[in-house]
Amino acid sequence: AKDMGRNGVSFFHSDMEERSLARILLENELKKAIELEQFHIDYQPKLDLSTGQLIGMEALVRWNHPELGRIPPDKFIPVAEDTGLIIPLGEWVLRRACEQNKKWQTQGYPHVQLSVNLSARQFYQPDLLDKIKEVLTMTELDPQWLELEVTESIFADIDHAVTILEEIKELGVHTSIDDFGTGYSSFSYIKHLPVNTLKIDASFIRDIHHNKESQAIVKAILTIAQTLDINVIAEGVESQEQLAILQEDGCNQGQGFLFSKPLSDQDFGAYLQGLRIT
Ligand code: C2E
Ligand code: CA
Ligand code: CA
């Protein structure tokens, strides 16, 4: 208060102000990065837990800044969401990932589903459906090979969310609820949701082998999903112990460092080539 000017404005930098300065810098860099296409995409395998077969891949965006180095998505995705930059960035990821997937299919590699993350902001864009159709037409990717991962945050407006999910389904594109169990979803309305898959949040998998509550939640999700004929995948599987419990409880799909970390497109291509039966 001592440093307040006559009109009560402090010229002292508070933590808040410094944080927002860092944020403004990040915002500007992000804007440039989109124009300069400083991004690339890694792909993480999804596996069938009973056969070990590859069943899918998740596209994960990566930002390699020329001076700042690698900036993790957890840092820049929230900024991109707040500023709306997620719209052009998300579109770029969708187009690029579909292009890449189609290319692998054309090269004769095994066809596997591609999952792309869709932020709530993208989900509620009025032209979302047109954008998806445009990408599918441009890349000539069959809609059945595309899955969109959305988080429970879209269910803040449940009726609107269901309408959009129905429209996506009409296109033949699959949908998945990411980070499932952490947000708005209540078991009472899951039955109305036109989604293909629930992706159990990594936090439940992390301690599943020594936390009875986490295991109970995972079991409950598996039971209800089975009744509703919805697919379940566990994310963040890191250890054999976790895998053993998931298998025992009847979870058939998984993703995590135990199987593979996210791979560059070259590495994922090589991996696919190794699976090719010729
Ligand atoms: P997410 O969608 O939940 O993606 C899974 C994250 O967990 C990824 O982090 C992945 O690298 C990491 N992961 C995978 N297996 C394991 C494991 O066994 N252990 C641990 N500890 N982590 C594992 P990443 O790539 O850093 O992405 C973080 C988040 O950023 C994503 O979480 C997603 O919310 C967001 N994100 C990434 N790419 C995109 C994108 O293209 N669009 C949007 N809207 N969001 C994205
Ligand atoms: Ca995801
Ligand atoms: Ca997730």
Outline the biggest β-sheet.
8 strands, mixed, barrel
Ligands and ions found: ligand C2E, calcium ion
Q: Helical content, roughly?
A: 40-55%
Number of H/I helices: 11
Distance between the termini: 76 Å
Beta-strand percentage range: 15-25%
Radius of gyration: 21 Å
From the structure provided, what is the oligomeric state, counting identical versus distinct chains?
single chain
> What is the global morphology?
globular
Primary descriptors:
EAL domain-containing protein; single chain; 278 residues; alpha/beta; 20% strand; 47% helix; binds ligand C2E; binds calcium ion; disordered N terminus
SSE map:
Blueprint: H1 15-36, E1 39-48, E2 54-65, E3 69-71, H2 73-83, H3 86-106, E4 113-117, H4 120-123, H5 128-139, E5 146-151, H6 158-171, E6 174-180, H7 187-190, E7 197-200, H8 202-206, H9 212-228, E8 231-235, H10 240-249, E9 253-255, H11 265-275
Parallel strand pairs: 2-4, 4-5, 5-6, 6-7, 7-8, 8-9
Antiparallel strand pairs: 1-2, 1-9, 2-3
Helix pairs in contact: 1-2, 3-5
Ligand C2E binds next to strand 2, helix 2, helix 3 and strand 6.
Please characterize this protein's 3D structure.
This protein is an alpha/beta fold and 278 residues long. The chain is built from 11 helices and 9 strands. It has helices at 15-36, 73-83, 86-106, 120-123, 128-139, 158-171, 187-190, 202-206, 212-228, 240-249, 265-275; strands spanning 39-48, 54-65, 69-71, 113-117, 146-151, 174-180, 197-200, 231-235, 253-255. It has an 8-stranded mixed barrel, surrounded by 4 helices. The chain is globular. 31% of the residues are buried. It binds ligand C2E and calcium ion (2 copies).
